[in-house]
Design a protein that fits this description.
- By secondary structure, the chain is an alpha/beta fold.
- Helices cover 17% and strands 25% of the residues.
- The chain folds into 2 domains: 3-63 and 178-389, QueA-like, CATH 3.40.1780; 67-150, QueA-like (Thrombin, subunit H), CATH 2.40.10.
- The chain has 8 helices and 17 strands.
- It has a 9-stranded mixed sheet.
- Helix 7 (346-355) crosses helix 8 (362-375).
- The two termini are 24 Å apart.
- Mean pLDDT is 90; it is low at 259-268 and 296-304.
């Protein structure tokens, strides 16, 4: 398939610049795959679409204040630094802007929130084929521990602010209420709509709420520059699957006992032995973890049975570069809750694949739903509205 096939027109005023007053105030477009029916609801109505024994799986990665400001020690030229991944203490891969002015051995003095110089410097050690820079930080014991004082919330570039940098509320609202392990440089945005009260309401309906971790990096938001999807290469992202989530999914999907046991019964209620629930992925990042673990043909080498069914899941951590686009055979995920995504993005391609598993018509189905969302003035992208695909 061609990248251009996933293009669509979006009025600029539909790109959400602020979060809604309350998280659950977002709108919810519900797309029924089999009938192609579309419903227009509010996010607070989500529990009406959940059934007892369903497993709602969310990504609990925490966004770090990954955007730094600095100046060239020699020329005073300004830099914007987006930290991508830590390889060791004070050793990071990063995107620099402007990158062409940061050759190897460039020294950058880091600024604080008030743009005042600090005693911390970043030295460019190397550059890779993607134009990213490897940085070593000096003058600080561990830059990761100072990011709360130095770094900014890494809002995407389509969110504009009257003055450079995010607002104070972004530190709270560009973060899920259930975020735990730090490591993402972009929010798993489908989870931004949830509040603790809504999650408790969902649990009260005998729906299981479980978590995976995928630290959102460049693989999620990097644009597709190739003309064809097959020529695009995803960047790796780190994930982790905990024992309780693995066991819940195993039981709901009838995969067997797996190699783990529930050891936190006060947090996770085991499904009944006759469970007929569904696995509902909250966000494309969660879905990518689940399908990476399912041993699909897109990720050769992961566990699968000779029949093609997924093997029982076991707790694990690893890295994935799975790229899902039509047609695709989904092994574990039965429903998807997601936001509205950018044209030509890997996320839009994934959603199109999910709208019609094993077929190519999902693109037309999703783009038609997007066109209706535009006509009804839904809000798009990170701070925008949500879409439930059943």
């Amino acid at each position: 398939m061609r990248t251009a096939d996933f293009d669509f027109e979006l009025p600029a005023d539909l790109i959400a610049q602020e979060p809604p007053p309350r998280r659950e105030d977002s709108r919810l477009l519900v797309l029924h795959r089999s009938s192609r029916q579309i419903e227009h609801r509010r996010f607070i109505d989500l529990p009406e679409y959940l059934r007892p024994e369903d497993v709602l799986v969310l990504n609990n990665s925490r966004v770090i204040p990954a955007r730094l400001r600095g100046a060239n020690v020699r020329t005073a030229g300004q830099f914007e630094i987006l930290l991508l991944e830590e390889t060791a203490t004070n050793d990071w891969w990063a995107m620099l802007r402007p990158a062409k002015r940061a050759p190897v051995e460039t020294r950058i003095q880091i600024r604080d929130h008030h743009r005042r110089p600090t005693h911390i410097q970043a030295i460019v050690l190397a550059a890779n084929q993607h134009g990213h820079r490897r940085l070593r930080f000096e003058g600080v014991g561990d830059i990761a521990k100072e990011l709360s004082l130095l770094g900014e919330v890494p809002l995407p570039p389509y969110i504009k602010r009257p003055r450079p940098g995010p607002r104070a509320q972004d530190r709270e609202r560009y973060q899920t209420v259930f975020a735990l392990p730090p490591g993402s440089v972009a929010a798993p945005t489908a989870g931004l709509h949830f509040t603790e009260s809504l999650l408790n309401r969902i649990r009260s309906q005998a729906v299981h709420v479980a978590f995976v971790t995928l630290h959102v990096g460049l693989g999620t938001f990097a644009p597709v520059k190739s003309q064809t999807l097959a020529a695009h290469t995803m960047h790796e992202e780190r994930y982790e699957l905990k024992p309780e989530t693995a066991e819940l999914i195993n039981r709901v999907k009838g995969l067997g006992s797996g190699a783990c046991a529930l050891h936190t019964p006060h947090k996770v209620r085991p499904p009944s032995s006759s469970s007929s629930g569904r696995v509902i992925a909250v966000g494309t990042t969660t879905l990518r973890v689940l399908e990476s673990l399912a041993g699909s043909s897109a990720n050769p080498g992961l566990a699968a049975t000779p029949s093609g069914r997924p093997a029982p899941l076991a707790p694990c951590s690893g890295r994935t570069r799975i790229f899902i686009y039509p047609p695709y055979d989904f092994k574990l995920t039965d429903a998807l809750l997601t936001n509205f995504h950018l044209p030509r993005s890997t996320l839009l391609m994934l959603v199109s694949a999910f709208a019609a598993p094993n077929e190519s018509r999902g693109r037309e189905l999703v783009l038609a739903a997007y066109a209706e969302a535009v006509s009804r003035r839904y809000r798009f992208f990170s701070y925008g509205d949500a879409m439930l695909i059943l």
